[in-house]
Amino acid sequence: MANSTSSQEEYIDSLRQIKETEEKVHAEIEAYRKQVEQIKNLQDDLKNTIDIAKQEGKEMVEKNIEESKNKSFTESDKIISEAKNKSKSVSLQLDRQMTKEIMDIIFSGM
To answer: What is the rounded radius of gyration, in angstroms, for the C-alpha atoms of the chain?
Structure first.
């Protein structure tokens, strides 16, 4: 009977070891599943961050182009306005000598 009890205890120990191993494997699988889920979440976050950065970069480029265009229009309008004002203020002052030279040029061709 001692032999039978010993066999039963060995059998129970074997079952206990199988159960412990099964629980360890299950815990490891669950840990890996959580890690995979975390990696997937990180990938999703990274993709979203990249998409947002691309959109912000595109908007920034468009804004800078518009600002540059407006600045160049403003500067060209300023230059044109200054040129108009200068052309109004430029006057020709003729003295007798210059008048005589102009007349000589005009009448020399006749």
So the answer is: 47
Torsion angles phi and psi, residue 44, rounded to 5: -60, -45
CA angle 6, 11, 14 (to 5 degrees): 125
In percent, how much of the chain has pLDDT > 90? 61
Q: How far apart are CA 10 and CA 12, in angstroms?
A: 5
Confidence of residue 82 (pLDDT cuts 50, 70, 90): confident
User: From the CB of residue 78, how many other CB atoms can be counted at a distance below 10 Å?
Assistant: 10
Pull the structure tokens for residue 62: 């468009």
Domain boundaries, the chain: 2-108
